[in-house]
Design brief:
By secondary structure, the chain is an alpha+beta fold. It has helices spanning 11-21, 79-91, 97-101, 122-134, 165-174, 176-198, 200-203, 209-219, 224-231, 235-248, 254-263, and strands at 4-5, 26-35, 73-76, 113-114, 139-146, 153-161. It has 2 domains: 4-203, Beta-Lactamase, CATH 3.30.450; 209-263, Arc Repressor Mutant, subunit A, CATH 1.10.10. A hairpin with a 6-residue loop joins β5 and β6. α9 crosses α10.
Length: 267
């Protein structure tokens, strides 16, 4: 199932963004937050959390090789662009040279990064071209923007145009600073409005929705027994989720866990 649109950014803001992108030939986009590969913060999966020892490490650990297909929410121009994303990641990303180059480190040279045209192996070129035509995409662009006060996380805005790559480059080159200013402005807006749904810890299922719900109840002052009664779980099951969260968020105790959950934007 493809990711869903976050309901925390109203249509008016999205329409305003698209209106300002139009002079560049950009008609669709999606925005999410991912781990920054240039950061020292790394990521572990929920299963790997069992073998980590949190003592003596006060930094948040999240998986560097996070499975992007697990994303649940994004701020997007329309649901169809998220369907394109899903199909691309499942069928073509592994073989796409542009995708291999498009990680956050690319911003050291190019930001925004304009993807090369169809770089699929010959046996896959035709089917990928059909996918691009189906979604009226000829040019793809990625822009990276650090998330304020969140070490190790970076926002990525993927933009799509039905114009040829050369035309889009000309559009951007004519006002080089204008697009970057626009993208930074709206990235900060999306972060402020939608951070709870596009938070990478919950959005990529590093912590499950059940675990986040348990954290919310604990933050309200509920004991494990009380949480269990509300969620129809055993006290042992509640503590299992809390122990996993404590390791992933490198929290010393329950109070510190709630504090770090707030700092991370989970609550």
């Amino acid at each position: 199932m493809s990711a869903q649109q976050s309901g925390m950014v109203c249509n008016r803001i999205i329409e305003s963004f698209l209106e300002k992108l139009a002079p560049f030939g950009i008609k669709r986009f999606y925005y999410c937050i991912i781990p920054d590969e240039l950061s020292n913060v790394c990521i572990v999966t929920d299963d790997q959390a069992n073998i980590l020892n949190s003592d003596g490490n006060e930094e948040l650990h999240i998986a560097k090789m996070i499975d992007l297909k697990k994303m649940r929410f994004a701020v997007a121009s329309d649901p169809e662009i998220l369907k394109f994303r899903e199909e691309f990641l499942h069928r073509f990303a592994r073989n796409d040279e542009g995708y291999q180059l498009s990680g956050p480190s690319i911003r050291k040279k190019y930001n925004p990064y304009i993807w090369p045209e169809n770089t699929m192996p010959e046996r896959r070129k035709r089917s990928f071209e059909q996918l691009l035509n189906l979604y009226q995409i000829r040019t793809r662009i990625s822009f990276y923007h650090p998330v304020k006060d969140k070490k190790g996380w970076i926002g990525i805005c993927n933009l799509f145009s039905s114009d040829k790559r050369g035309q889009v480059i000309d559009n951007i080159s004519s006002t080089p600073d204008e697009l970057e200013t626009l993208l930074r402005e709206f990235a900060e807006t999306f972060n402020a409005l939608a951070f709870k749904t596009i938070n990478p810890i919950s959005n990529f299922r590093v912590l499950s929705p059940t675990c986040v719900e348990i954290l919310s109840l604990v933050a309200q002052g509920c004991s494990s027994e009380e949480v269990g009664k509300q969620l129809y779980m055993s006290e042992r099951g509640v503590n299992y989720h809390l122990d996993r969260a404590r390791v992933i968020l490198t929290a010393r105790n329950r109070t510190n866990l709630v504090s770090k959950a707030y700092q991370s934007g989970l609550l």
